[in-house]
Amino acid sequence: MIGTAAAVAAAGWTAGSGTAWAAPGSSEGAEDVYERMARAAALRWRRLPGDWKDGPFLGNGLLGVQVYRGATANSVKVMVSHSQVQDQRPQWRAPYGFSRLPIGHFDLTLAGEVTGIDWTLDIWDAELRGTVTTTRGSVRFSMLVHNARTALLISTRPSAGEETAAWSFTWLPAISPREKDKPADYTGNPDPRTGSAGATQYVEQPLVAGGGWTTAWRERRVGSGRLLAAHIVYGFPEELSRTTQRAVAEVGRTLSANPDELVRVHRAWWHRFYRRSLISVPDKRIQDFYWIQLYKAACATRAGGPSMSEWGPWYPETGGSWSAVWWNLNVQIATWLIQGSDHPELDSVTSTFKSFEKYLPQSVPPEYQDGATYALAHPSDWMLRPGAKTVGIPGTATKTDNNGNLIWAMHNVWLSYRHSMDVSIVRDVLYPILVKAVNFYDHFLYEGSDGKLHLPLTRSPEWADATDCTYDLSLIRWGCATLLDCLRILRTDHPRAGRWREILQRLVAYPRDETGINIGAGKPLTESHRHFSHMLWLFPLHELDWDRPSDRDTIRMTFDHWVKDRSLWAGYSYAAASSMASLTERPEDALDFLTYFTDGNVIKNAWMTPNTMYVEGGNLAVESPLTAAQSVLDMVVQSHGGVVRVLPSVSGRWPDVSVQGLRTQGAYLVDADRSGGRTRWVRVHSEVGAPLVLDHGIDGAVDVRDERGRRLRYRESGPGRIEIPLGRDETAVVLSRGTDPDLRPRDVPAVGDAKPWGLPD
Fold it and tell me: Residue 456 — φ and ψ, nearest 5°?
């Protein structure tokens, strides 16, 4: 199968370019398990996709591409978009003033009408390859968004009868697609100007605020084929003419480069990416889904680049209501998987706050802008600017569900620290921002008649207004506890440290009744609630922990009550429920929640699409499938509370599991293997050195050795739990006593059939 894919790829790229853009894997020697699994996850199309919901997608964190049916029976559309392309009018809220803006699409106009397609999105190479068949002939093509050059490259090779197949570009009006709460004085941006510089064509789009972007492209013949290169360059506030010069120059540089070398560099990055970690499970539909989410995440965001919007780098031609960056859940849950899968190169959340902290005061209501207070309104643009909106003021009519956004985002930054143990993340990002985020809440805490600290009326996201809102209280608790941890990590003190301790001691307990923890004081959960905002103390904050028997009744009651009514759930509700079930030793429920969502069931006008995108109310939202990848990670490794748990929530329906290179808190890298329903061995590598507390899950007596086979000291601290004093760059291998297993990763045997994602039939 791999050999066939290689042959198709070699033929698909432009002929006559030296090595015809070398066949996949030819520069890297023999196929390995990482390559085999990534290639097996390829999405396939035998029917022409209709739009973004079921079409192929490419990206590099900036430039996004979607491919689907054109406007006529003899055309195919390639929609192009860019994460940085946005408006610059701060007088309106971000969905208008800083709105993501449409760019346009390339159209391949064919001589005949399309009668069939055979496409493969090979995520290992991050390339779309295939054939379009028409009434007049066929066109073979290969397409990629170059990882380093941010260029769209399309190689075509028409057959006899389709020699006239040609590319054109159609621009779209630079207007926010959002209609909800549209400002009365909103106007779109002016129409673009078209032009050419030699053989390079361009469309120059000005903004009312100044600057703008240029789309430039040129096609050249390479042997018997053709190669199209396109660049999109955005500039603000620079002169648009300068942006056009840069775009034209980029096209020239790309087309003057050796195409074989361009593709080699592109593929090499993606191959390194996939080799960082591995998960193999018997349900190959879910296994492929997980690998596709890794691909999607790397297409959507990169460290140092724009934080992930609701659309990633893509632009939905229809269903484009969420035209900015949503921080009341969406960014946070979309980026969890980068930690456990060991992909810090995708951590745009930490880099965004490091680069754009200066804009956080803009989200604070004017009367609280005292220089010591931060907040984060949603939505914002990718630089954290909210436009004409601030967070609400607790206890007043302006209250909103914005108040907790910043602290929740800081939890993602904390996870980045915990998985790397890089103190600079605490020093430079987490600590200075979290101090001011907690300060904002502290303005509103007041002493009640019970002597406890209370919070006035706020809003639990997407459900209800409440005093002593559980959502806010949990974030305040986590924020204060984490600030005290920061002081220990940085070996420093702070004048407000005493106040943080006081808040932890005196903050009112979560409101609760016989159903568990409530939304807020006097606000039990009485109907379906898609947002798990009232359960952050369990997931992801882990304030209450299943390991503590005293917490179990509260966790069980609250979780069971939440999942009882799913009538208003969204996709991410099922993903979060799966992760929570994994945390509470309910592996069969965890798998059921995950498969219900990934099987494409309709969930209140929302569903997983054939290409693993997600539709909600007709709109594109990338966070739910990405969160579901975290659900898979929570089944195979957990590391909250200072304990590394290996294969802690694997369903009995999955007799075999193999994992390699999964990253945990404490900067450990974990490999493990389950075979025939039993964990056979676990290997843990410590990057920084620390006592390892490990739930290994191996039945019976174990041996603990280093990688050279020498015995290591360890101490049993509970059933299946041991403590191993590991130093920096040391490794422990734990295995059933008297065994000598193969410690290599493997693609485990399949259980059941699984058709490819896409439109394979």
Answer: -70, -175
